[in-house]
């Protein structure tokens, strides 16, 4: 499967608990942190929930 790079670009301060937990589930804790994931429906669904806090690019 294809890989995607997810970068945290905005803070989780004043966000719902669900969004904070989704960011942690993606492995994003610090601003500017980049993680690689497989391009699966589960990961894409989590990214869609927090798309205003992250940027996504093909790896």
From TrEMBL:
Q: Which InterPro entries match?
A: Ribo_uL30_ferredoxin-like_sf, Ribosomal_uL30_bac-type, Ribosomal_uL30_CS, Ribosomal_uL30_ferredoxin-like
Residues annotated as domain Large ribosomal subunit protein uL30-like ferredoxin-like fold: 4-54
HAMAP family in alphabetical order: Ribosomal_uL30_B
Task: Indicate what this protein is called per its UniProt record.
Answer: Large ribosomal subunit protein uL30
Which keywords fit this entry according to its UniProt record? Answer: Ribonucleoprotein, Ribosomal protein
Listed GO biological process terms: translation
Tell me which species this is from. Answer: Leeuwenhoekiella marinoflava
Q: Which NCBIfam families match?
A: rpmD_bact
One short Pfam family name for this protein?
Ribosomal_L30
Give the domain of life.
Answer: Bacteria
CDD domains listed in its UniProt record: Ribosomal_L30
Q: Does the keyword Ribonucleoprotein apply?
A: yes
Q: Which family does it belong to?
A: Belongs to the universal ribosomal protein uL30 family.
Record's subunit section:
Part of the 50S ribosomal subunit.
Q: Name one GO molecular function term.
A: structural constituent of ribosome
List the GO cellular component terms: cytosolic large ribosomal subunit
